[in-house]
Amino acid sequence: MKNILCCLALAVIACTARALPPTILGSLYSKNSWTTTSDFIPNGTSTVALSSGFIRLGVNGTPDFTYPGSNSIYITSYQTKLEKWNLKARFKILSNGVGIGFGLNSSNSVSSARHDIMGFVQTIAGGDGDLYLMNTRGQKLVSFQHNHYAINDIIDVELDFNVNVVNFTIQNQTNGETHTLSYTYSSTSNQYVVPNTSHFALMELGGSHELRDLQVSSNEITYSNLVVIGDSKTSSQYADAFSLRYA
């Protein structure tokens, strides 16, 4: 009897699943004003405060630069292994400091297995900083020198991730400068590994920045016809190379 009931339940689930057409996942987070800081979970010396409907980000003390990710600010407690996602943000530079990052912070507690990605904007004194695609362990995948900015500049950033290709675009709405960094994870090398389960996050390493808009979305398909379940080797972690993944 139990087996019959189980079979009936599975049949109902299967029929229900078939009745739902594949759909783009779409928006995961979208706000351009806030009444509370509860969406943001600061770590390390990072700080979060409400300021006239915007989110003011800063530090209280010296960050641990041996592991910059320890100063991340989670965007809610949501965790993800999505392979197609997009993060857009607008911020204002309030004071100079090391800078701010946007992207993923790995949930893995083993330091060598923290695979993630951040688009990072230096906002050091002098108005001439660098841009990085980096992981939260401080390894720089690609960089650009001589990004120009000033206090009170409004800056738009976009980090787009598609399976193994990541693009980071920055547009300074005040001075008109636009730059794009791109990186493709190699199919034959394990120097850098595609992100594993992570939090969408900001990474505040010094200075003060005002978050004015934040959008996170995904083009992943829901209600798909095939689901693959596996461990970390499914997407290449400890399988040595991206080419050895099987999903």
Describe how the helices and strands are arranged.
Elements: H1 2-19, E1 23-31, E2 40-42, E3 46-51, E4 54-59, E5 72-80, E6 84-95, E7 97-106, E8 118-123, E9 128-134, E10 140-148, E11 154-162, E12 165-172, E13 178-184, E14 198-204, E15 208-222
Antiparallel strand pairs: 1-15, 2-5, 3-4, 4-15, 5-14, 6-11, 6-15, 7-8, 7-14, 8-9, 9-10, 11-12, 12-13
Task: Give a quick summary of the entry.
The protein has one helix at residues 2-19; strands at 23-31, 40-42, 46-51, 54-59, 72-80, 84-95, 97-106, 118-123, 128-134, 140-148, 154-162, 165-172, 178-184, 198-204, 208-222. The protein has 247 residues and is mainly beta.
Order of helices and strands: HEEEEEEEEEEEEEEE
Number of helical regions: 1
Radius of gyration: 20 Å
- Given the helix and strand composition, which structural class is it? mainly beta
Q: How would you sum up the global shape? A: globular
Query: Tally of extended strands?
Result: 15
Profile the largest sheet: 8 strands, antiparallel
Low-confidence stretches: 1-15
Mean pLDDT score, rounded?
A: 88
Give the % helix.
under 10%
Name the beta content range.
Answer: over 45%
Distance between the termini: 37 Å
Commentary on this structure:
This protein has 1 helix and 15 strands; from the N terminus they run αβββββββββββββββ. It is mainly β and 247 residues long. The strands form 2 sheets. Strands 1, 3, 4, 6, 11, 12, 13 and 15 form an 8-stranded antiparallel sheet that branches. A 7-stranded antiparallel sheet has the order 2-5-14-7-8-9-10, with no helix packed on it. β9 (128-134) and β10 form a beta hairpin. The longest helix is centred in the N-terminal third of the chain and has 18 residues, at 2-19. The protein is globular, with a radius of gyration of 20 Å.
